[in-house]
Amino acid sequence: MDGITPQLIGLQLFTGLALGAVYVLLAVGLSLIFGMLTVVNFAHGAFFMVGAYAGYALYRIVPNFWLCLVLVPVVVGLFGMLVERTLVRPLYGRGVDYPLLLTFGLAYVMIETVRIVFGKQGMPVDAPALLEGSANILVGKFPLYRLFVIGVTVALLIGLWLFIEKTSFGLIVRAGARDPQIVRILGIDVGRVWLIVFGLGTGVAGLAGFLAAPVQGISPEMGGSVLTVAFVVTVVGGMGSLVGAVVAGILIGIVESMAVLFVPEAAKVSMFVIMVLVLLVRPQGLFGRAGLMN
Amino acid sequence: MTYLALLAGAACIACASAPCAAAGMPPAPIRIGLPVPLTGPYGAEAQDQVRNATLAVREFNDSGGLDGRKAELLVRDDRLNPAEAATRALELIDKDHVHFIVGSLSAATQLAVNNVIRQRKVPYISISQSDAINEAADFSRYTFHESLNPHMTAQAVGRYVFRKGMRVAFLTADYAYGQEMTRGFTRVAREVGAQVVGEIRHPLGAVDYSPFLPRLMAMHPDVLVFNNFGRDNQISIKQAAEFGMKDDMKFVVPVLTYTSRVAAGARVYDGVVGGSGYYWGIESTTPSARVLNERYRRAYDGGLPSDYGSMAYSAVKSLLMAVKAAGSSDAEKVVDALANERYDTYKGMQFYRACDHQSVQSVLVIQSKAAPPGSRDLFTVLHVAPASTGALRSCAELGHKLPH
């Protein structure tokens, strides 16, 4: 193949990393929710979209990108908690199918509501002036904004890791993922834990949407394609494993990007090929625990 | 029911197909169907097509019509769906008894309507930018094509931008429109002696173009042509600019529409060069444009006709001119009149080429410029490629054996 220089490969790798960052954010939320609540959140893509629109609406009231960056995940997380308390909570104990169907329908409702309020047409969104333009990163020119997204993802992952590994609440989350019954017997209000985890997961999805908006604009349907990727990444990494979500997200982002260089027609399919290969060898995903559904 | 009522009824039926001033009834209107995608992503463009078509009809009626016969526009929504477009066309012909059809914006819907009118022998002027309708397989005596096609746009823009020895790269949307455009530009590049250094195809509707951009950069082109449309075009240009690519190469698009420029904003399209069928700014050099702009301003609160909208004006106006020349609304007579017509409706002289009824017309090469918010002065007209059959694919290439 002509013209493949180390610089091109380096730049393409970095592009994959930026792609992977958004995938990681989405998969982390999805994995948390499934790991803790055993809820397959089909509305996760819709929360991503709501985050983008929340940012757009919030910016009109508070025209400060940095403030919105902090507020959007909180707003979406609160909305997620409301959903958990009123819609998902009554379905606990009835098996995996009920919450799945609920979140599936919820996604449609959220998308239609956004269409009604904001219109069916999408709109472009601008990055803040500070983050416009490109930076020279040895291998070539790369958009400053995408570097920023990688940075925010890393910061968020560090924060999440600290939260889960170093705080007592994080300890409960880990224990609850391992064995919810024991945690309840120990007198801990598992319900409150689930509420917060659902809020956390959806809040991170909303953040991902807010970050993605200046890159690709916003549209009511923007959650559809990312949902597929989020599921593939979560399955490859292992449902319930945060390390898995991170590793798989980066892996799939890079593979998709490199595939465009060498086998462009197969680029969009590459993630499914990986999923099939991983599931054949390790059905629980790279870092997942076997028997999670029992 | 009295005998008189029955007689009046019979007279009405007789009148429906012929002017009957003798019976003391108003002459039957000349009905023109207009199926356009009012619902969907091209709703804004379609609305402007309706406004422009209405303007043309009003002009005709205000000047007396055809010996007192007025024209009537029947607007229908095809929802950007070929099946619906075909249904609307059938309804217009069978139920509403239209004499002619003008429409519709999208390439797929125009072919669906064309199939209907060919069977029913109803003259049809298409206002959709696509190559397909010119091909022999889709052609019929009653089929006319007012708009530009991708080949013409590629010729005009390509000839203006490409120079011998220039390195040209393409980012192509992987479907008919993108592929047709890339084919058109590649042809011009070869003729001019420019070098095509590569092409990258992306799926239609892609939202992230970053995987494609490093490879395009590695080709070191002088010119990057974005052969995609609408939101794809806006997003891909924006992302390419974010990678700093505008510093190293010229951004060119086949069609630079008013709506895209407004949607994406000045910064994204700054310096981008593209083709267009019409821009109101040519009124300084083209009298008929000034006339259209003036009429539009007066009718629509100071507004201005868009590129897509003005096509509809031209189609309806040239149609009604042919009706006047033929002296009737009879399909066969009007088709003959259209085929021989030379008309200057809004941007200079145009005529329909014999073999495929493609309207031979000028093509503008425009460049986006920064403008204060609310201003309509969004483009600089760099060049006007004059009307010429040389800009079209040859009749033989399209599969036509003899001129019709």
Question: How do you describe this structure in short?
Answer:
The complex is a heterodimer of chains A (294) and B (404). Chain A contains 11 helices and 2 strands, in the order H-H-H-H-E-E-H-H-H-H-H-H-H. In chain A, helix 5 packs across helix 6.
If you had to describe this structure to a student in words, what would you say it looks like?
The complex is a heterodimer of chains A (294) and B (404). Chain A has 294 residues and is mostly helical. Helices cover 73% and strands 2% of the residues of chain A. Chain A has a domain at 25-226. Chain A has helices at residues 6-37, 44-61, 65-88, 97-118, 144-166, 168-178, 180-185, 190-216, 222-237, 242-262, 267-281; strands at 134-136, 141-143. The radius of gyration of chain A is 19 Å and the shape is globular. The model of chain B has no long low-confidence stretch (mean pLDDT 89). Chain B has 13 helices and 15 strands. In chain B, β8, α8 and β9 form a beta-alpha-beta unit. By secondary structure, chain B is of the alpha/beta class. The longest helix of chain B has 20 residues, at 43-62. Chain B starts with a helix and ends in a 19-residue tail after the last strand. The A-B interface holds A 3-5, 7-8, 11-12, 15-16, 18-19, 121-124, 126, 132-134, 140-143, 145-146, 215-217, 219, 222, 225, 256-257, 260-261, 264, 267-268 and B 41, 200-201, 203, 207-208, 210-215, 217-219, 231, 234-235, 238-239, 242-245, 263-265, 268.
